Amino acid sequence: MIIRTWRAKSSKNQENEYLATVRRVVLPRFEQIPGYLGSLFLRRLTQDKSDYLVLTCWESIEHVKNFFGPDIGVAYVPPPIQETLDEFDQTADHFDVVIRHGNKL
């Protein structure tokens, strides 16, 4: 399994719009991609921002390449998502899962 990571920040007043746009635009697109296993959208609140760490799970690096293309390090940030964020990474990182513990993962 491959975990793709990406980070972004929004102002607290944009948080609801960001999450709604993820549900409306990004997740339906991901659900159509062969090899996509699921996502975790993590949030950490700071004094004035919502800081996100997004983890998407993939069967293999080949499945990642099939969707994102040969330069898998380029972030996927559609314009409607960009409009809801103050900052976002232009790149994504990929990790091989080497230990998986727990029967619910």
Give a written overview of the molecule.
The protein has 105 residues and is an alpha+beta fold. The model has no long low-confidence stretch (mean pLDDT 94). Strands 1, 2, 3, 4 and 5 form a 5-stranded antiparallel sheet that branches. The protein has one domain: Alpha-Beta Plaits. The relative contact order is 0.30. It is globular.
What spatial form do the alpha-carbon principal axes imply? globular
Q: Which spans of ≥5 residues are poorly predicted at pLDDT below 50?
A: none
Q: Fraction of residues in helices?
A: 25-40%
- Average pLDDT, to the nearest integer? 94
Structural class: alpha+beta
The first-level CATH class is given as Alpha Beta
Spatial gap, N to C terminus? 11 Å
Strand coverage percent: 25-35%
The fold-level CATH name is: Alpha-Beta Plaits
